[in-house]
Amino acid sequence: MRAVIQRVSKASVTVDGEVISRIGTGLLVLLGVEDADTPEDADWLVRKIIQLRIFADEQGLMNKSLQDVHGDLLVVSQFTLFASTKKGNRPSFIRSARPDHAIPLYEGFVLLAESLLGRQVATGSFGAMMEVDLVNSGPVTITIDTKNKE
Question: Is the pTM of this model over 0.90?
């Protein structure tokens, strides 16, 4: 799994002209799933993301997690995170998981996040053409890949 995590002051997802999800201060996670991903990858990644200390403490240092600040979480599926641009100029998405594999992992990711945070997690609409609107706070943007744990 691959995630692009953005600290936001607000974010929303619109499908067919209708806002389907909206959050305030928190994290927007663009989540990509590949064929090799497992529920263990989802578990590790959820825990890593909600415990990332990327929110300011009283001294202005990035020392608090999403849990600490009781921030919102918006998770949006994004198969293009596994784009390969190695050959030519047209990206290949061959590593991106098909919906029958990706949807259960995406939904499991969201359910675990809700369980750990103790509140609802906002989502996009899997497979839909979405417009994602956000205000990146900082800006803070971090990428994490479960196959390259640093």
Answer: yes
Q: How far apart are the first and last CA of the chain?
A: 14
Write the Ramachandran bin of 74: left for phi over 0, alpha for psi from -120 to 50, otherwise beta.
Answer: beta
Q: For residue 115, is it within any domain?
A: yes
**Cα 123 from Cα 20, distance rounded (Å):** 8
Q: Does residue 14 sit within a domain? A: yes
Q: Is residue 150 part of a domain?
A: no
Catalytic positions are 78-80
CA 108 to chain centre: 13
Query: Looking at residue 39, which CATH number applies to its domain?
Result: 3.50.80.10
Pairing of strands 72-77, 122-123: parallel
With beta carbons less than 8 A apart as the criterion, state whether 32 and 78 touch. Answer: yes
pLDDT digits (tens, 9 = 90+) for 106-135: 999 999 999 999 999 999 999 899 999 999
